[in-house]
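Researcher: Good morning. I'm working through a list of sequences from a screen, and I'd like to move beyond sequence-only analysis. For each chain I'm collecting a predicted structure so we can compare shapes side by side. This is the next one on the list. No need for commentary yet; just the structure.
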Amino acid sequence: MRILAIDVGLGTQDLLIYDSEKNIENCIKVVLPSMTQVLAKKIKNLNKNVFLYGMTMGGGAITRAIKHHIQKGYKVAMTREAARSIRDDLDRVRKMGIEIVENSEPYLNNREFEKLETKDIDFELLRGILEAVEEKFYFDYVGIGVQDHGFEKGKSDRIFRFEKIEEMISKRPMIRDLGFENPPPYFTRMRAVYKLAKRYFDNILIVDTKFAAIVGALHEVKDRYAIAVDIGNGHTMIGVVRDREILGILEHHTKLLDRERIEKYIVRFAEGKVSNREVFEDGGHGCFIREPPGFSKVGKVRVTGPRRELLKDSKLDIEFASPGGDVMLTGVMGIVDIILERIS
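Model: Good morning. Structure tokens for this chain:
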């Protein structure tokens, strides 16, 4: 079994080519800057107008770069699909000073505009890297992790994202069900990366990066009850699991949290004493608890994510997750584990 797993984050895109005939230490691993970082650098180095076309991708760095480019006095035009990388609500994109175009042709042929293609993954770049080292660009399954808030006109993205999380966990609580073989239309970024991958591969699974991190942090954990915490640059997610079944999920914004607040959330969450309303009014996304196990039933708290150092001196019994001996494998290993459980 040969699986390509790609976890796309704000700063990096982490790749693992899982081969069931090899030890994980001998599988190919690549860490590259995320495409939003790459495009942001290109825009920063330009001294001319910019036209962005292509697919919906992650915003973050590219959004900041575009704002700065407009402030420098340059024009920025984008197709509708590309513009959704900034905001799904295109009226808000226009208010930033970005021109949204229906017809790309005049801009693609206009020498006054630099043309940049938007996409979360450059599969041709990956093909070139692999073929340069005599590796095949062939996989039995491809799993991709991106974060997508989802979109419904007139509704808070915080509310909408967590409504969909609760809906999914209520209907399909097993770890093997944490993904989409064909993402719904309201997840515009997931749909875009799915359509991109479909140009190359048949068997595809799209996973939210936060779920990938939670599952990866629990890689090879045999405890019946387990808690995993992913402390990301933007979001922090806490997951409680029993025998590969999701019992509850809590999601908050990392910038609003410190060590003590995270610790309190972990304990109270496991006890079933945190409400969705409390988390939302605290500035987070929400909380959904199907069945609280009680904190006493949980062993170590597995912690991952780029901001995991927030729990470095925790009073709780924590363990920093490093599946395969590499913290950068957490998300991609989670994607692989979800795929393996789906097909087993």
